[in-house]
Amino acid sequence: MNIRMSEAIETLAKPADHPVLFAFDGPQGQITGRGAPIPLPRGTSRTLPDRVARAMATMGDKAILGGALPFDREDEDCLWLCPASEDAGHAASGDPQALPLRDWDLTAQPAAADYAAAVDHALRIMADEAGKPQALEKIVLARSLLIRAGATIPVQALMDRLGADPAVTAFRVTLPARGKDARRVLCGATPELLLEKRGRAIASHPLAGSARRMADEGQDRANATALEQSEKDRREHAFVVEYIMDVLGPHCRSLSAPAGTTLTHTRSMWHLGTRIEGELKDPDTPSVVLAGLLHPTPAVCGAPMRRAYDLIGALEPLPRDFYAGAVGWCDAKGDGAWQVAIRCAQISGAEARLYAGAGIVPGSDPMAEAAETGAKFGAFLTALGLPLDAGLAGVTKVTE
Length: 400
Ligand SMILES: C=C(O[C@H]1C=CC=C(C(=O)O)[C@@H]1O)C(=O)O
Hints:
This protein has a single domain (about 5-90, about 105-390), classed as Anthranilate synthase (4-Layer Sandwich), CATH 3.60.120. It has about 400 residues and is of the alpha+beta class. The strands form three sheets. Strands 1, 2, 5, 6, 7, 8, 16, 19 and 20 form a nine-stranded antiparallel β-sheet that branches. It has an eight-stranded antiparallel β-sheet with strand order 4-3-17-18-9-10-15-12. It is globular. α3 (about 110-130) packs across α9 and α4 crosses α10. Helices cover about 30% and strands about 30% of the residues. About 50% of the residues are buried. The structure holds the ligand C=C(O[C@H]1C=CC=C(C(=O)O)[C@@H]1O)C(=O)O. The ligand C=C(O[C@H]1C=CC=C(C(=O)O)[C@@H]1O)C(=O)O binds near residues 140, 192 and 358. The ligand C=C(O[C@H]1C=CC=C(C(=O)O)[C@@H]1O)C(=O)O binds near residues 300 and 376.
């Protein structure tokens, strides 16, 4: 179907009557896009700037663009154009009775032990290649949990529960139908800001390096201190900051990152973070175009990027699809916020596929990385009403 953008906006007269296409609720604000399901022409990262420029030329200040960029830059993105309206502040609340899930079963894909074997494999490649040109220095490997419930998973109620943590951006993005999955939604609660733009000012807040939060205050503090002092985690983090500085640098008249990292936290995880801030040379560069240039960063892929990306395809048994891509919104001025699509699931009816990954560098311990991914599932599992450590099944005991 070929739809001109001007026609698309006219068709979407009463957004409140339409289903939610995308919604974000977090430190960067509350944004909801509703409308008849009219996507922007779909395409890959290569055509993104051109498609966005054409959309922006017709959208005036009455529309907002939002959606998801896939992990794989060669896959098609999913962006929607909606009228910006005064009641678009937030989506209606979900039915609080709809959760916890009552009947469910859970399958780890791959099992924790197979994930640890893939980590071990990557570590051996790093050791073999050390010192050679284009040697693999970091890779982020992910695994997934497939949850099958007895009834349709209530996306808005889930998003409401995920958003209870003030440190995260809860999000939902309606994805294009695929096969029997007619109503696919990407839903999650990400703590990681890929790119925010207001006028000329931009910011990014990459995270890499993790430790699990503990119920016991003393143990929790000990985990945080160990993370702050971990040379392995600081190395893992530095790749991300360096990459973002390199990609954004040519687009900025100033760009800076503080020396050292800051400890940040969600309700279930500690992370190392760095807030990068800058000023664009061209304040009209749309935030979605900058997000498209940036992702996937070494927080979800690795270094060197191409080498890590190829190996992810070989070592992970399932495609990532929109996990580890980017989700966000962009207004007619190009302002907006894009988050890294982590701590999320692709939901289709009564099924949810959750994803979590961990950064691997020389010195990583395969079973500890499997445990880290297990802990990263925690927030989503809790929101569904499942046991916090259901994601740790098959992880043999590792020191916290
Ligand atoms: C890839 C994920 O997390 C990234 C973000 C923060 C910390 C990370 C880490 O310590 O490995 C990851 O880079 C994920 O949650 O799936």
